[in-house]
Design goal:
alpha/beta; 260 residues; Rossmann fold; 8 helices; 7 strands; 2 domains; seven-stranded parallel β-sheet; globular; binds nicotinamide-adenine-dinucleotide
């Protein structure tokens, strides 16, 4: 379905980003991976995805906290893969602390990677999409783009902020073939969330599995994790012609979290 298209997926060396990159590659889309990690492991991921899907998969290690590196990554995508048709702003980190104890440098880093970084990626990618009058921009927000939780001031602020950016980009690209939406997941059991589950296990003095039950019961009525494959499928749908009139909206995939 996406044969001939090119996608840049930030933060795709693991977790949700890799799930979306894989789902797009399975539809024939060439992919630029991005994110941190061990160089040999990243190369294994890149070559494995290329072998599995038969599409061209490249990697650019830009730091989403650095505007110059983001601009160079978009240029690299266009130069090495021929265009940039799909941009997935997904890279993210987490830090938990009460507001009055929140380290200010960590606040700056989270806003830089998760809000300012996507602005720069969109700013640089849009002219290429406008040239072809087709594009899909998907911002990985979160349930925390719609509701708050204690001890996540920077994360919740960045995720709410990207909802605003999503709406403005959708309005500005309204009459074009470009759409801009967010995906708003609840708990997905990736490295980012495993750290939080371990913190809960330590706090309740229980096992990791005890903490899983505790965390899901508190927030996610389905009492189950969302999978990266389910998010990948939603991403493919948003890139399809069937979704051409869906723009500027949050696509919740949260097991009922925000219905409460
Ligand atoms: P993850 O830790 O598996 O993936 C994060 C990715 O971002 C990795 O590839 C990492 O290398 C990359 N990254 C981190 N800092 C970076 C930087 N400065 N520059 C470039 N890449 C960087 O976690 P995940 O859960 O897959 O998170 C992916 C996105 O999904 C994040 O935006 C996160 O906020 C969001 N999200 C996660 C959940 C969840 O439950 N896991 C829920 C809602 C939203």
């Amino acid at each position: 379905m996406l044969k001939g298209k090119v996608a840049l997926v930030t933060g795709s060396t693991s977790g949700i980003g890799f799930g979306m990159a894989r789902a797009l590659a399975q539809q024939g889309c060439a992919v630029m991976l991005n994110g941190f990690g061990d160089a040999a492991a990243i190369e294994e991921t890149r070559s494995g995805l290329a072998a599995e899907t038969g599409v061209t998969v490249r990697y650019n290690g830009a730091d989403l906290g650095k505007p110059d590196e983001i601009a160079a990554m978009v240029a690299d995508t266009v130069q090495s893969l021929g265009s940039i048709d799909i941009l997935i702003n997904n890279a993210g980190i987490q830090h938990t602390a009460p507001v009055d104890e929140f380290p200010t440098a960590v606040w700056d880093k989270i806003i830089a990677i998760m809000l300012t970084g996507p602005f720069h990626a969109i700013r640089c990618a849009l002219p290429h999409m406008k040239q072809k009058n087709w594009g899909r921009i998907i911002n990985t927000s979160s349930v925390h783009g719609l509701v708050g939780s204690v001890n996540k001031a920077a994360y919740v602020s960045a995720k709410h902020g990207i909802m605003g950016l999503t709406k403005v980009v959708a309005l500005e690209t309204g009459p074009t073939g470009i759409t801009c939406n967010s995906i708003n997941p609840g708990f997905v059991q990736t490295e980012l969330v495993k750290q939080q589950i371990q913190q809960r296990a330590d706090a309740i003095g229980g096992s990791f599995d005890d903490a899983v039950v505790d965390v899901l019961k508190e927030k996610q009525p389905s009492l189950d994790f969302i999978t990266v494959d389910q998010i990948g499928a939603l991403c493919v749908f948003l890139c399809s012609d069937a979704a051409a009139q869906i723009t500027g909206v949050p696509m919740s995939i949260d097991g009922g979290w925000t219905a409460q």
